[in-house]
Amino acid sequence: MADTAEAAPPDPTKFITVKTTLPKRPTPENSVRVPFTTERLILRPCRPEDLDALRVLRTQPEVMVWTAIGRVDQDMAETEVKLAPFLPPRDVTNYNWAICLKENPDELIGIGGCHNWTSSFGWPEVGYMFRKECWGKGLATEFLKGFLTLWDALPREETLVAVDARTVDSKSTIAVDGEGVKEVEEQYIAVTAIANARSQNTLRKCGFEHFVTWKAQDSRDGMGKLIDLPTFRHFPRRSKGKGSNFNS
Predict the structure, then answer these.
(1) How large is the angle between the packed helices 197-205 and 139-153, nearest 10 degrees?
(2) Cys-Cys crosslink for 190: which of 53, 78, 172, 232, Cβ 3.0 to 4.6 Å?
(3) pLDDT tens across 125-175, in order?
(4) How far apart are CA 161 and CA 182, in angstroms?
(5) Residues 6 or more apart in contact with residue 104 via CB below 8 angstroms
(6) What is the largest CA-CA distance in the chain?
(7) What is the pLDDT of residues 8-18, one digit of tens each?
(8) Are 132 and 62 in contact (CB under 8 A)?
(9) How much is the pLDDT for 239?
(10) From edge to edge, which strands make up the β-sheet containing 95-101?
């Protein structure tokens, strides 16, 4: 679809059921996840000891303005609540990683991955955050490319998923079975704010394509006005040269 496409927000009551593949759930526990290195980064499982570093990240207004809440954490307890989903026993419900520099693998400078298995469009959603002093160095692109390698390597299973019909088009449809259910390539969704051009450029560099811009009420504290949300998608299995994911 063209980058100028604008549309209504996703409506789960109008979703359609498709046959696709997704990573098997539960996801691997933190205890068995192997750290992944890129040129400058180490992606590793989150730890309880990351709380202080996550607190630094989540008290930077420049970072938090792009989050759904739009403000810094008010206290350590709020940050602890944000870290908890990425620690046992809830670690198996997502696939989020601590992002560290190679020279200091114990200090979290960012966090990212699949934090939401069912996005507004029904597909898994990717997201990430970096400390402001790490911006403008290509680290977000480096992280996302590395994370997509990890995501692509997860074992898959065939499943039925309710998704927004706008994600099912000629580019994604593989076949239609005897009962009329479409078999489609799995997708990975990223939702951005219209003003966050930096993140949109990162997504494009990593193979994401813009497919719709929709309006939603700004969920940030004290806001509430309608904002535009350019939304991107990625076809994970295409990077492995598999047009059809079934039987893989």
Answers:
(1) 50
(2) 232
(3) 999 999 999 999 999 999 999 999 999 999 999 999 999 999 998 888 888
(4) 11
(5) none
(6) 55
(7) 899 999 999 99
(8) yes
(9) 61
(10) 6-7, 209-217, 226-234, 188-191, 125-130, 108-116, 95-101, 41-44, 36-37
Amino acid letter, residue 208: F
Kindly report the pTM of this predicted structure: 0.90
pLDDT of 246 > 50? The answer is no
Domains of the chain: 6-240 (3.40.630.30)
* DSSP states along 176-238: E-TTSPEEE---EEEE--TT-HHHHHHHHHTT-EEEEEEEEE--STT--SEEEEEEEEE-GGG
* Contact yes or no for 108/143 (Cβ under 8 A): no
| Cα 83 to Cα 76: distance, rounded to the nearest angstrom | 11
Q: How far is CA 50 from CA 31, 135, 178, 195, in A?
A: 15, 20, 50, 30
**Does residue 238 register a pLDDT over 90?**
no
| Gap between the Cα atoms of 240 and 234, Å rounded | 13
CB atoms within 10 A of CB 236: 23
Q: Minimal CA–CA distance to 139: which of 52, 147, 49, 193?
A: 147
The token pair at 86 is 């990425």
Which are the contacts of 126, defined by CB distance < 8 A and separation ≥ 6?
A: 112, 113, 114, 144, 147, 151, 188, 189, 190, 234
Which is more confident, 245 or 121? 121
Position 93 scores a pLDDT of: 97
